[in-house]
Design brief:
alpha+beta; four-stranded antiparallel β-sheet; 17% strand; globular
């Protein structure tokens, strides 16, 4: 199995260079929201391990909201974010990018502070890399190559079955299954299809994953007595803040919403990028740090086979602390419209949204951390749009394929590899084609 990972580079934009940077990034697109995958600056499609990538200019649209919390807005600098999701080690992939697309990356990052003095591009990228506090992968081990091969497999089977439908209608399920297996073997022998075997799981990743799987519960077990003792104090501190914190939920500006909408719904999959300030004070900072730490355990070891709790439309997502944990950046790649995406979370995992994002400025008021909050639908949707950032450039290596369709294609492949299936199982399997 090849595990998936991520990379993220964050660099302040040099004074007076933001407009020219936007112009350069826009040149990577056919039109707003639609990237040229083989553009001359950074040809994403040439990197076969890359699932998704994006450039975002981080210029916080909610800075002034902090004044309503009684604190002066920090002087956060506008920054360029370059992030992606890939097969294998993220650091190793960054090295490949630096080696094979160095000219284009230099052209882009020359708009950032301190870049002009560097001779070592990779070292500069590593120095400006930012690790996620939590990182979600829809299906751990499903590579770009596998996705493309299994999509081609289904397309070939659909065409073959369409041509044989009259004969198949009168044959037993097992006969149909055997004929489909024979057809695929023939296509592979003729080199019209490939079904590559999974690579061996890296031993270092396997050890690290097991240590994390066992280590987090061990730490929680050790600190459990202290958490229990602290729980009444925490409850008091939480309720005092939940009832006293100002609720800041202004409607997003029309021009901002229009700009965001222009970048969406060009494919079945969309991008989402957002930034928010953590509410002032150590209580909120420590609370969100602990909760995101627990979240990371869940998405790493529990929700890695097609679902984030009950949500099955997200391909990749990450939560990243910035500026000394005073801000939290969130990015995801999801199927469907933003409206459906928001409704999915509200209806299926609203409590999870509340746990993390209620510690941020502007989130609808919660009750005991998990109640209300996102259930106030209009305020929540205003919060989402107000904190969302335009994604200047977005690349998707498998357009037209939803996460559910990828799972279906994998099940089709698995059915071909089975040594035995009963007739009922074969009938259900054929329905996938």
């Amino acid at each position: 199995m090849t595990p998936q990972s991520q990379f993220m580079v964050v660099a302040p934009i040099a004074a007076g260079r933001q407009a020219s940077l936007r112009e350069l990034l826009n040149s990577l697109n056919f039109r707003p929201g639609v990237v040229d995958p083989l553009n001359s600056i950074l040809p994403f499609a040439q990197f076969g391990r890359l699932h998704f990538a994006r450039f975002v200019i981080l210029d916080d649209p909610t800075r002034e909201d902090l004044k309503q919390h009684g604190i002066a807005p920090p002087q956060w600098k506008a920054s360029l974010l370059f992030l992606g999701d890939c097969d294998g080690d993220g650091d190793a992939f960054l090295e490949i990018l630096a080696r094979q697309a160095g000219i284009g990356l230099r052209q882009i990052f020359s708009h950032c502070e301190g870049f002009g003095s560097t001779d070592d591009l990779l070292q500069w990228l590593e120095d400006h890399s930012q690790r996620p506090a939590a990182n979600y992968v829809n299906w751990l081990g499903r590579t770009v190559q596998q996705i493309r091969e299994e999509s081609a497999l289904r397309n070939a089977l659909v065409s073959y079955v369409a041509g044989q439908s009259a004969d198949f209608a009168h044959q037993e399920p097992r006969v149909v299954w055997e004929k489909l297996i024979a057809f695929v073997r023939g296509e592979i022998e003729a080199q019209r299809l490939t079904l590559s075997p999974a690579a061996a799981t890296p031993i270092g990743w396997r050890i690290g994953n097991w240590l994390h799987l066992l280590g987090v519960p061990f730490v929680l077990l050790i600190i459990a007595p202290f958490l229990i003792l602290y729980l009444p104090i925490f409850a008091y501190q939480l309720r005092r803040r939940e009832t006293a914190d100002p609720e800041i939920a202004p409607r997003p500006e029309i021009d901002h919403v229009r700009q965001l909408a222009e970048l969406e719904d060009h494919d079945v999959t969309n991008q989402f990028s957002a930034i928010g300030a953590v509410k002032p004070g150590l209580f909120r900072r420590w609370t969100v740090t602990f909760l995101v730490w627990v979240l990371d355990y869940g998405v790493r070891h529990i929700y890695n086979s097609g679902h984030l709790t009950r949500v099955s439309t997200i391909h990749f997502a990450r939560w990243v602390f910035l500026d000394g944990k005073t801000r939290l950046f969130f990015a995801s790649n999801y199927d469907g419209s933003l409206e459906a995406y928001m409704d999915d979370f509200i209806n299926k995992v609203g409590w999870g949204l509340n746990l993390v994002f209620s510690n941020g400025v502007g989130y609808p008021r919660t009750n005991w951390l998990i109640f209300q909050g996102s259930k106030d639908e209009q305020k929540f949707k205003n919060y989402i749009r107000r904190h969302q950032l335009p994604t200047e450039v977005w690349y998707n290596a498998h357009p037209g394929l939803t996460a559910v369709e990828m799972e279906r294609n994998s099940r089709i492949r698995d059915g071909l590899m089975e040594s035995f299936m009963d007739d009922d199982a074969i009938r259900e399997w054929v329905k996938l084609i």
